[in-house]
Amino acid sequence: MKKPLSPHHNLVDDIQGLSLGVFLCGLGIHVLTSVGLITGQTAGLAVIIAYLTGTSFGVVFFAINLPFYFLAYKRLGAAFTIKSLISVTLLSVVTTLLPLGFTIQSLDPALGAVIFGSLVGLGLLAMFRHNGSLGGLGVIALLVQDTTGFKAGWVQLITDAVIFTAAMFLFPASVVFYSLLGAVVLNMIITFNHRRDRYIAT
To answer: What's the confidence (pLDDT) of residue 199?
Structure first.
């Protein structure tokens, strides 16, 4: 008789899943910043601060996530918090190194937005399925979904609406419009694909 598969991820599963998620998110953010767009969530705040201050996105992103780790530890457990901390640290490194490896000289902003949303949406799905995240407001979204059933993607989309409203006062309308397109693609991927009752491995 065939032995049933375990519903739990082992260490190797988690390493490959989180690594893939971080790399896809890093690629997406590199595309985003290469075409001069912004995004929502904690990454969006980090991109805006990086643009305004000239500071590296990786440094800002790491720093802005620090307050959320306490909440993640208290509500989602040590494993989730450790995985998220490692993932955020790796993403900071990846987004710093990627521009040294390749540059994007020409890309339509609308296409760039869709590529960004697709890559980061898939990257976040991989991380969620291995009990990790990129910290920040994503932690809040997961908490809301797990405690109330209200979709994490909708929570993120509402948060993004607030961030993009503020961005209207800082960036040209075209930048905000294309950035919003990328955020919609990202959050729709999360909304339609992140369901714990469909993917039970932990």
So the answer is: 53
- The token pair that represents 151 in the structure block: 């979709």
Q: Could you tell me the two tokens for 201?
A: 């491995």
Contact 116, 40 (CB under 8 A): no
CB atoms within 10 A of CB 79: 12
Buried b (16+ CB within 10 A) or exposed e, 27-61: bbbbbbbbbebbbbbbbbbbbbbbbeeeeebbbbb
Give the whole-angstrom CA distance, residue 22 versus residue 202: 18
Structure tokens at 4: 């049933």
Would you place residue 194 in the very low, low, confident or very high pLDDT band (cuts 50, 70, 90)?
low
State how far the Cα of 120 lies from the Cα of 186, in Å rounded to an integer.
Answer: 6
The amino acid present at 34, given as its one-letter code, is: S
Tell me the per-residue pLDDT of 134-188, one tens digit each, with 9 for 90 and over.
Answer: 767 777 777 787 788 887 767 877 887 888 887 888 889 999 899 889 988 988 8
Q: How confident is the model at residue 201 (pLDDT cuts 50, 70, 90)?
A: very low
